[in-house]
Amino acid sequence: MTPTLTPTQVEAFRRDGWVRVQGLVSPAEVEALRETYMRLLRREIPVEGRDYCDMTGTYQKALLDYEILNVMLPRRYHPAWQGNVYEQRARVLAQQLMGTDIELDYDQLVAKPPNKSEAVFHWHQDLAYWPATSDTSTATFWLALDVVTADSGALHFARGSHRERFLRPHRPLFADRGDNHSLLARIDEAKDVIDPAELQPGDCTIHHERTMHGSPGNRSDRWRRGYVLAFRSRSAIAEERAMGFTHSHNDDPTLLAKIAERTRTTGATH
Fold first, then answer.
1. Does some domain include residue 147?
2. What is the dihedral of CA 122, 115, 248, 92, to 10 degrees?
3. Could you give the angle at which helices 7-16 and 85-98 cross, rounded to 10 degrees?
4. CA angle at residue 156 from 154 to 161, to 5 degrees?
5. Which domain range does residue 79 map to?
6. Quick check: helix, strand or coil at residue 153?
7. Total number of domains in the chain
8. Average pLDDT over residues 87-99
9. CATH number of the domain bearing residue 59
10. Which of 80, 166, 215, 218 is disulfide-compatible with 121, CB 3.0–4.6 A?
11. Is the pTM of this model over 0.70?
12. Residue 63: phi, psi to the nearest 5?
């Protein structure tokens, strides 16, 4: 299977800041990914420090109380996953959108267990989480490993928000990012057009680094498991790493605090 985006899908990404892709991964391939995914969630594959955390509470929250199970950089902790079928196909689509001078910057697992109505991933722009680089272009993939509907916590995108001149102000969920990594911004209910992204297993979305997005809690009796890949230019990744920024929640909290303060107070343009 050689994936490709249609001209209509490419135009949707440019115009709306996101696009839906159906059937990027087959049912059998989804099942194989789920097996490894759950080994990481069950900690059968060890993950260091804050790279396994809850995105709704403090880093000291008890595991049984987690609302959003978050695993950063799973391919670092399970090298056998590197180059899996999802990575391969997503890279081809990312090259369509960004050109060939790209690499996978980071991967992430974001899982909402059944009946977790407080598992809210607040509205944000991904670029607010990252340090300033010369080239900010990013194609972020969100692969569904379950049926994703409004009641299970589907992603929602603010259509066209990536075309705004400034990032929206963001603030830490708690006092600072040493307590929790999450940032949040505000939707303008009078102006923003919100697109829900309901998905079948194997479907994915691709979104722009400046697109406002978030998701409500999981009110269903089903899992809502997402697998994230972010592709960026090689130059952007090199600049990040030179600053000591790896997308790990174990990165220097002083650097993370500076990034959060910049987007909170200046609405940085990047």
1. yes
2. -90
3. 70
4. 165
5. 7-266
6. coil
7. 1
8. 98
9. 2.60.120.620
10. 215
11. yes
12. -55, -40
